Amino acid sequence: MSTPVVPTLSEITLAEPRGFCAGVDRAIEIVERALQKFGAPIYVRHEIVHNTYVVNDLKQKGAIFIEELDDVPPGATLVFSAHGVSRAVQDEARARGFSIFDATCPLVTKVHVEVAKLAKEGFEFIMIGHKGHPEVEGTMGQLDSGIHLVEDVADVARVQPAQTDKLAVVTQTTLSVDDAAEIAEAVRQRFPKVREPKQQDICYATQNRQDAVKVLSPQVDIVIVVGSPTSSNSNRLRELAQKLGTESHMVDNADELQAAWFEGKSRVGLTAGASAPEVLVNQVIERIRAYGAVSVRKMNGIEETLKFPLPKGLRIEPQA
Ligand code: SF4
Q1: Which positions does UniProt annotate for (2E)-4-hydroxy-3-methylbut-2-enyl diphosphate binding (predicted)?
Q2: Residue 1 belongs to a domain
Q3: Distance, CA of 219 to CA of 217 (rounded, Å)
Q4: Cα(207)–Cα(151) distance, rounded to whole angstroms?
């Protein structure tokens, strides 16, 4: 089938920054290095990051993705995904004697450490996040009880902590910055003594990608977000562009693009969630070029240089 041509299309503007963050880079590298060092199969609990292409690529290299530890054979090497896991999963994996590498993003671990520390001081928690997301399950699972999930402002009115003197708020790292701020304000209104993290839990990558979409959206007629349906931060990028009044679509790969979206439009904005690889962005660029876009321009934006160290046992140690 020939590619349809959209005569109005002129330019693609690439959001900066977009795509992989330091936590995703590290998580993928952990699985790849484990495969190189120990050979296939390497078991990974949950999708290492929420991206179909990345998961399929690692499957081909010998990773096996599981949800239940029952599906991991004795003596296997097991990697925890970037989203983090509950204490119960950590304890069970240890008890079963697996060789474990933890690919939990250090910025998620930071939240886990904060929860554990404050819980020892008698705090209860309000967690702002999306029910069922593995990061939320992992963070809430740091304690047996005492973390109350709120998904929106209405939930804040309903939440019933056992006491309000020692109450702290924690946030999923990949939320809409604006929605989370609104919910946090409702928490503050209802619980004026609530303790908030010194540095916000929403991570730098989520913040930077959303800031870039805020700059990009008014400059273009349509925003395309490369990301998988399960990716929280990718979904937030699409919603944000839409909220700013620019038509927006999220695609897992170039084949999901529809020429009809671009009819009558000239300028296309393109971004990618923190788990979406640049190879997919390039394929999307090529497809939109085939539709008729003639030029590609990079937006000015923050350059990200953060890099997280790999776990011991997977680092390449300097030669003696
Ligand atoms: S999106 Fe943020 S929290 Fe999630 S892996 Fe990337 S840096 Fe870490």
Answers
A1: 50, 83, 133, 173, 231-233, 275
A2: no
A3: 5
A4: 19
pLDDT of residue 198: 84
Ligand 1 atom with the shortest distance to the CA of 22: 7
Instruction: From 304, 213, 278, 260, select the one nearest 8 (Cα to Cα).
Output: 260
Q: Which residues of the chain have pLDDT under 70?
A: 1, 318-320
Tell me if 307 is assigned to some domain.
no
Q: How far is CA 17 from CA 13, 20, 225, 270, in A?
A: 12, 9, 13, 11
Does any ligand 1 atom lie closer than 6 A to the CB of residue 205? yes
Residues 158 and 142 in one domain: yes
Give the integer Cα–Cα distance in Å for 100 and 43: 10
Number of domains making up the chain:
3
Q: Given this model, what pLDDT does residue 80 score?
A: 98
Mutate to test the pocket of ligand 1, among 203, 230, 233, 234 (most ligand atoms within 8 A of CB): 203
The boundaries of the domain holding residue 155 are: 107-190
Q: What is the pLDDT of residue 3?
A: 87
